[in-house]
Design a protein that fits this description.
By secondary structure, this protein is α/β, with parallel strands linked by helices. The chain has 2 domains: 118 residues, 3-Layer(aba) Sandwich (Rossmann fold); 148 residues, Mannose-Binding Protein A, Chain A (Roll). 31% of the residues lie in helices and 17% in strands. It contains 8 helices and 11 strands. Helix 1 packs across helix 4 and helix 2 packs across helix 3. The longest helix is centred in the N-terminal third of the chain and has 17 residues.
Length: 291
């Protein structure tokens, strides 16, 4: 998995996997990114089984800027730099950093003044995730808080936020069609999900089994938060009477989230109109997600 997004901009760091060089990342690069209000990610912070080149390329594509450390003239660094330049020239090069405090100030200035290349500006939101959504569960999510969340994100709900227009999705099927990536949120969704409705306890077991099986090559699948799940809602019926893009299988017309309501029930999203809380012993589908 990657990181929980806190800022609009992402800096991806390319450097050798070396403990001494890693100190440059922890002592200089990371603080500079934090001060510049950028999320920052280094390849070895990716957790779980994954195809390293595939995932790195995905993060390079979605990042706003890439910092490449050329200290050891590492061939992997040069390979990944080639990928960056093929997509867009958005690289800041560093070499043999010694004075950490001075480099933090220098990098902070470079990051804050960084301008996107014209080609990247043209593609705009297609190059990166533009909407950061909550990924941590809430145990007592009230009706008022849900309505505030829907209004804040402009998500459509036929009963709670009928004026919401939803988001402009950037869907792409990946991993032999098993996964749908949304470039608007940076989320990877199951294209289908559970084949039948199950109770909440079994929904958690279903996700555990996905991870044991390394579904689509990953073991960090989870139930979505209500915020993440509602991001899939369309403001118009795109498939029959469902408010969801036809890129998804239509069996899972409603599905569990990880959020609990104030009454102790679980929030469920239904593509027939929106969200509602549901008894844990009731039945719904599962559509897992990962970031």
């Amino acid at each position: 998995m990657g990181i929980e997004r806190k800022h609009d901009k992402l800096c991806f760091v390319i450097m050798p996997f070396d403990e001494q060089i890693k100190k440059v990342y922890t002592d200089a690069i990371k603080p500079a990114c934090v001060q510049a209000q950028m999320d920052v990610l280094r390849a070895d912070e990716l957790i779980g089984p994954y195809n390293i080149h595939r995932d790195i390329i995905q993060y390079i594509f979605n990042s706003d800027v890439v910092i490449a450390d050329l200290t050891d003239w590492n061939p992997n660094v040069f390979y990944e730099m080639g990928v960056v330049h093929a997509i867009d020239n958005k690289t800041i090069l560093i070499n043999e950093i010694k004075n950490k405090s001075a480099e933090i100030e220098k990098l902070k200035k470079q990051l804050s003044e960084y301008k996107q290349p014209k080609a990247q500006q043209k593609r705009g939101v297609q190059n990166r995730a533009v909407l950061s959504l909550r990924s941590q569960a809430i145990d007592k999510l009230s009706e008022d808080e849900v309505q505030q969340m829907l209004a804040k994100n402009n998500f459509y709900d036929s009963g709670k936020n009928e004026s919401g227009s939803g988001i402009q999705h950037q869907y792409e099927k990946q991993y032999s069609g098993k996964v749908v990536f949304d470039g608007a949120t940076g989320l990877y969704w199951q294209q289908s999900g559970s084949s039948k409705t199950i109770n909440y306890k079994n929904a958690e077991k279903y996700v555990e089994q996905l991870n044991r099986n390394n579904f689509a090559g990953f073991s960090d699948w989870r139930l979505p938060t209500l915020e993440e799940a509602m991001s899939l809602m369309e403001s118009t019926q795109k498939r029959s009477d469902l408010f969801v893009d036809p890129v998804f299988e239509n069996t899972q017309q409603h599905f569990w989230t990880m959020d609990k309501s104030s009454a102790g029930d679980v929030w469920v999203v239904g593509f027939s109109g929106g969200c509602g809380d549901f008894d844990v012993y009731g039945s719904s589908y599962v559509r897992a997600v990962r970031l």
